[in-house]
Amino acid sequence: MAAGAVRFYFDYISSNAYLAWSQLHAMAERHGRSVEPVPVLFAGLLEAHGQLGPAEVPPKALWMARNNLRKATLLGIPLRPPASHPFNPLLVLRVSSLPIEEDARRSLIDALFAATWARELRVDDPAVVARAVDEAGLDGEALVAEAGRAESKARLRQQTELAIGAGVFGVPTAIVDGELFWGYDDFPFLERFLAGSDPIDGEAAKAWRRPIPSAMRRQHRERRALRLSHVNLPARDPDAQVRWYSERLGLEARAHFALGPGTLIAFEPGEPIGPRGSAHIGFEVASAEEVAAWAARLGAPVESEVGSASTKLRDPEGNQIEIYWEPGGPGAGSTL
User: Fold this and answer.
1) At 335, is the pLDDT very low, low, confident or very high (cuts 50, 70, 90)?
2) 245, 265 in Cβ contact below 8 A?
3) Contact at 8 Å (CB) between 137 and 144?
4) In Å, how far are 43, 102, 126, 131 from 123, measured between CA atoms?
5) pLDDT class for 12, splitting at 50, 70, 90?
6) pLDDT at 295
7) Please, which residues have CB within 8 angstroms of residue 150's CB and are 6 or more apart in sequence?
8) Inter-residue contact 194 to 181 (CB < 8 Å)
9) Residues 157, 248: one domain?
């Protein structure tokens, strides 16, 4: 990160990120700072920290829509309902992560946020994204094609994982000089920090680093540590794939994502890779008995060897799935 830059973590799926982006550069310039935008997958943050998104809590979603509309009106910027929500933001996040010149990236992000939250366009549609990129003065067709390459997908995964490692739990998040500010409503405190008038001092903050709980809700007492495992799979019918993974494997369906402890599978339109290669998805479980239980549930055979057990099946588009156990492996003590 450039010295003194405000690192801004965002996902187009967030209307608060749109509001924050509209105000961030002017604030940074007032205090002699630059802005470093970092696209991240909000669903990955939610899964890593075991959270629900605002759209998944209906009363909260309704409140947030009206709250953000009030803020947008006062800011004098348009805010309209997106074409769908939640939607699959992977394409626009990958396009925004491509290695392009700083001013061009700002124009690109401006255009894609406007397409999502001001123009009600489907930014999960490659043709729509290409046109929006063209309007930003870049080659839309070329950038959309580049976003589909393996290295572009890996770049977004790495950005999300590094964000989690930096303590990012939601979007938008700004980190500057090691201090984290979450959400557009935290911007007054971000501005105070940039101005050198933070109302707290370092010693006062230290006392709040890690309060010791005296009571916890049951699900948090029993919850095991989460591991982020992000897999992208092309699919002829992403919606049908998500339903199958939900019904057969018990994963949670969210738009084009299938989620579970330590698992994030993102389906995007494309030709399935399963029938063409040996790639497969592996779920490690805690015991050979658990493998056998899954095999019985799925109607698949168990393959046992000394010190290991597995069962395999294919999803409707031919991707191979393996549920396996190895003694002492990282899955020991975890569940699918």
Assistant:
1) very low
2) yes
3) no
4) 17, 22, 7, 10
5) very high
6) 85
7) none
8) no
9) no
**Distance, CA of 189 to chain centre:** 25
User: What DSSP assignment string belongs to 250-313?
Assistant: -PEEETTEEEETTEEEEEEES--SGGGSS-EEEEE-S-HHHHHHHHHHHT--EEEETTEEEEEE
> Tell me, what's the pLDDT at 33?
97
pLDDT band at residue 225 under the 50/70/90 scheme: very low
Residue 207 inside a domain? The answer is no
Strand pairing report for 320-325 and 280-284: parallel
* pLDDT over 60 at 331, yes or no: no
pLDDT of residue 92: 98
Are 270 and 235 a contacting pair, CB within 8 Å?
yes
Which residues is 230 bridged to in the sheet?
264
Residue by residue, DSSP assigns 68-110 as: HHHHHHHHT------SSSS---HHHHHHHHS---HHHHHHHHH
CA distance 264 to 251: 9
The token pair at 214 is 């005296």
Side-chain-side CA neighbours of 320 within 13 Å: the count stands at 11
Can you give the CATH number for the domain in which 13 is found? 3.40.30.10
Q: Is residue 166 part of a domain?
A: yes
| Domain that includes residue 285, residue range | 225-325
On whether residue 32 sits in a domain, the answer given is yes
Residue 34 confidence (pLDDT) above 80: yes
Asked whether residue 19 falls in the same domain as residue 98, the answer is yes
Number of domains in the chain: 2
The model carries a pTM of 0.69
Torsional sign, CA 24, 152, 261, 60: positive
